[in-house]
Amino acid sequence: MSQPASPALRLFDSHCHVFREEFDGDFDDTLARAHGAGVEGMIVVGTTAATSRTALDLAASKGTGAVRLFGTAGLHPHEAAGFHDDEAAKIRELCEREDCVAVGETGLDWFKEWAPREAQLASFRWHLSLARELDKPVIIHSRDAHEDTLALVREFPGVRGVMHCFVMGEAEMEPYLECGLSISFSGIVTFKGSQLNQAAARACPEERLLVETDAPFLAPIPHRGQRNEPAFCSDTLRFVAGLRQDDPVRLGASTLQNTARLFGLAEYAI
């Protein structure tokens, strides 16, 4: 008698940038590989008004098959020098679209500091206010800016959202959880030197836990150094499940539901 097939992974890549030119040559194959790895959906995250429109258009044109795509609109902190009334108006218009599932990517980056701090702070505060006004989740980038990020989040109690590509430890994670945010772990959690981040992944309450690729960046072990892609979300999920001594299939389904709940994707109910 044949043995029953093992349950398949069900995953959701909660943050990727597959509109970028790195995917121009094999986008359809990228979707096929993602589907083969169990990825059922992707949040395609905009970083400027122009790329946000591209992300939303890509989701509309390519995201209705076996792998669903959902777009967002925002201004990445690296781009905050371009935060002005015209750019803000364009992003607001995109965020108001029914098919835009979140505000962002936004936040603060004191590591590279490609935009002046004052511009990043103004942009981040504006995005948080917009997210609260529209009652949409906000996608937050924070690098070497924990205290300032947390201070601004606390200015907007009740705002829903996610700390994307969370790379800090359990102590830093706790106040974001207290603010009601979800925590998304990327391929960085698989890196050898990421013990503090791994501790956070073990401690994160399951109902707040998401996984992502941030593709094309930050490919997990064993793909480090390659172009990242949504299929590799399965490697991060399996690693996090191992940290938590959990079943990957069960945890994958849970993170899918967490992503669907955060971004209002009712069609993913299990």
Describe this structure in words.
This protein is globular. The protein contains 9 helices and 8 strands. With 270 residues, it is α/β, with parallel strands linked by helices. Strands 1-2-3-4-5-6-7-8 form an 8-stranded parallel beta sheet. The two termini are 30 Å apart. 40% of the residues lie in helices and 16% in strands. It has a single domain (11-263), classed as Metal-dependent hydrolases (TIM Barrel). The longest helix is centred in the middle third of the chain and has 18 residues, at 117-134.
Radius of gyration: 17 Å
Give, in spatial order, the strands making up the sheet with the most strands.
Answer: 1-2-3-4-5-6-7-8
CATH class, named Alpha Beta
* CATH topology call: TIM Barrel
Q: Which structural class should the secondary elements be placed in?
A: alpha/beta
Architecture per CATH nomenclature, i.e. the level-2 architecture: Alpha-Beta Barrel
The fourth-level CATH homologous superfamily is Metal-dependent hydrolases
Strand content bin: 15-25%
Compute the number of helices. 9
**Mean pLDDT rating:** 95
Q: Point out poorly predicted stretches.
A: none
Task: Please indicate the count of domains.
Answer: 1
Short description:
With 270 residues, this protein is α/β, with parallel strands linked by helices.
Any chance you could write out the topology, listing elements then pairs?
Elements: E1 11-16, H1 27-36, E2 39-44, H2 49-62, E3 68-73, H3 85-95, E4 100-109, H4 117-134, E5 138-143, H5 146-154, E6 161-163, H6 170-178, E7 182-185, H7 195-203, E8 209-211, H8 233-243, H9 248-263
Helix pairs in contact: 2-3
